Amino acid sequence: VGSFQIVFLVIVLLVGWGVWSASIAGPVTVMVLMFSTTLLPAHYSESFCRLPCWTVLHKYFNYRRYNVADPKVFPKPDKRYMLIEFPHGVFPVATILIATYFDEHYDHYKSMGRSIRGITASVLFYIPWVRHFMAWLGALPATKKNF
């Protein structure tokens, strides 16, 4: 687990303390800690994607991949592809599933110099903590630059 995940866990513990505090310092501490996380850099974390807790999600959602293209033709290393998946919703479960599933089962993409990343709503990268969570999974904001 990387240093950013440790910082995240420390902040969660401090926020927990702040929520249970009865004084005005508790809510103020929570707000300061939440918004201070936006200053930390958010990067992809392979170790975070390989945590065993993600296999529970794969089993719960019965997540699997179906090939719709000839495996001898797909993928071509010089092309970029977009894989569409569901479910869609307020919380991007599909992003979590694709990030953790493909990193574990499709290492050969890395040997081709390619990566598989989820695209999620850009607004999620403005929300404290959610930004880091999505970045650790390798998700990118849905902007023109990332297509």
UniProtKB/TrEMBL annotation:
GO terms for molecular function: diacylglycerol O-acyltransferase activity. It is found in: Endoplasmic reticulum membrane. One of its GO terms (cellular component) is endoplasmic reticulum membrane. The chain crosses the membrane at residues 7-35, 81-102, 123-142. InterPro entries: DAGAT. It is a multi-pass membrane protein. It comes from the Eukaryota. Belongs to the diacylglycerol acyltransferase family. This is Acyltransferase.
